[in-house]
Amino acid sequence: MPSVQSSGASAGSPGADGVLIVGGGQAAVNLASSLRELGWQAAVTIVSEEAYAPYQRPPLSKAFLSGNAEATTLESRSAERYESDRITVLTGHRVTDVRAAAPGRPGVAVTEAGGRLEFGHLALATGARPRRLTAPGAGLAGICYLRDLGHALELRERLSAAQRVLVVGGGFIGLEAAAAATAKGKAVTVVEAADRLIGRVVAPVISGFYAAAHRRRGVRVLLGTAVSRFEGTGPADTGGTVTGAHLTDGGFVPADLVIIGIGAEPRTELAERLGLACAGGIVVDGFARTSDPAIVAAGDCAVTPHPAAADGALVRFESYGHAMDHAKVAAATLAGVPARYEAVPWFWSDQGPLKLQIAGLSGGFDQAVLRGDPGQERFSVLYYRDGRLLAVHAVNSPRDYLTVRRVLAAGQQIPPEAAADAGQPLQPA
Ligand SMILES: Cc1cc2nc3c(=O)[nH]c(=O)nc-3n(C[C@H](O)[C@H](O)[C@H](O)COP(=O)(O)OP(=O)(O)OC[C@H]3O[C@@H](n4cnc5c(N)ncnc54)[C@H](O)[C@@H]3O)c2cc1C
How far, in Å, CA of 319 to CA of 321, rounded? Predict the structure, then answer.
């Protein structure tokens, strides 16, 4: 195995003044572009293990799975744009080892194939990987995950042939995939171990709304039960294909395709090799600096303080908006113009015709104010703690979402009693 001790830099090395960004997702692209916007002159190299140039992940469980988008339309930037911004993108190279730069000595990242990338500055944007289900039979063919384009290509092909789809996990990705499969006429069952959908993030009224909305569209939603083992045409190691799943409540769900969406785990392995502090993600400060302040980390791989977090807790965001905003913070730190991470968190999820938009962080709320009628599939919930506005979750209500996002960004307030009157537009007090 090549080591950081061997000599000679590979093509694409950013060199002793340049920055190496490990990762090929939204955070990596935005970090690179932001560096150029901030006037960074030295080389910028993105190194990604994926076979594709950086692309947008959100459509993978939406338009792409439904067959309404193609891989080429997902690209984050054109090749010409990278070239004009002088950003080198190395695809198909997994970084397996890394040594930090020291005074008078460049840092070195070693790739699986033996490449050796020398750098002066290092940014980790390694993202997350899907959490694996360990139930017996989980290795059968037809049991799929959805994190990257490779997964999505396989899943889309299997979906077109499938009749009965089991979605394990009632979080955003599972529900988006369920909506896409239902729209394609498949018989879909969602199994969620908790007693409500998306329970980690939304108030019970929104969980209940999504369970009812998916059921109205023909999805079987099973709550409070989990997969105990999968059944297949034969053992996984002899090429068996899934035929269904036994549940902990004794039930059985027949399925010829299973989509697992039980969360994602931060990719901290390189940070750990570097000896950086990790605790449920790479620990960074409000300026995206890791425990080695010369190294930044951004996006899904990091846990960060944020002014909206309850009790000063470190938060690991998993959203497109965070990947963009946090990357800007990391770039500003590298460029020597540090700016604290304070952007209002935002997120969306499209499940068929239902668009959920989130601004702010609802954690620690003690009051949830409902505006509008969930029965009309158009409503929002505003979250408060001690009477102070924390967040909005808006379903098919973009105006409420935008207003709260602006109000939070401006440090303004909307009193709960004013928010409850859906006949009046939301406005700051
Ligand atoms: C299917 C799906 C749908 C989503 N939908 C939404 C949505 O509707 N709204 C929303 O706000 N968010 C959504 N998200 C979340 C959002 O896409 C992510 O939060 C965001 O993409 C994170 O970006 P990132 O750059 O931090 O990490 P990632 O996108 O995970 O990128 C990390 C990259 O680093 C590469 N990498 C890791 N380690 C190495 C290494 N050692 N060497 C080389 N390369 C490495 C990985 O292969 C990957 O390409 C969705 C995510 C998925 C998977």
Answer: 5
State how beta strands 220-223 and 187-192 pair. Answer: parallel
Distance between CA atoms of residues 405 and 343, nearest Å? 10
Q: Give tens-digit pLDDT for 162-213.
A: 999 999 999 999 999 999 999 999 999 999 999 999 998 999 999 999 999 9
Residue 260 is encoded by which pair of tokens?
A: 């697992």
Asked if 188 contacts 167 with a C-beta cutoff of 8 angstroms, the reply is: yes
Q: Which residues line ligand 1 (CB under 6 A)?
A: 22-28, 47-50, 57-58, 60-61, 94-95, 125-128, 146-147, 173, 267, 270, 299-300, 318-321, 323, 347-349
pTM, entire model: 0.96
**Ligand 1 pocket test, candidate residues 57, 65, 326, 357, most atoms within 8 A of CB:** 57
Give the Å distance between the CA of 264 and the centre of ligand 1.
10
For residue 282, pLDDT over 80 is answered with yes
Measured in Å, residue 49 CA sits from the centre of ligand 1 at 12
Contact criterion met (CB below 8 Å) for 98 and 111: no
pLDDT value at residue 429: 87
Q: Ligand 1 centroid vs 128 CA: distance in angstroms?
A: 6
In 3D space, the residue among 293, 302, 224 whose CA is nearest the CA of residue 268 turns out to be: 302
Distance 219 CA to ligand 1 centre (A): 27
pLDDT of 72 over the 70 cut:
yes
Distance (Å, whole) CA 143 – CA 160:
15
The alpha carbon of 70 and the centre of ligand 1 are apart by a number of angstroms equal to 18
User: Among 263, 100, 242, which residue's Cα sits nearest to residue 174?
Assistant: 263
Q: What domains can be seen in the chain, in order of their start residue? A: 15-129+265-334 (3.50.50.60), 132-262 (3.50.50.60), 353-419 (3.30.390.30)
Q: Give the position of tokens 């916007």.
A: 37
Ligand 1 nearest atom to the CA of residue 54, by list position: 49
Closest-CA residue, ligand 1 atom 31, reads 25
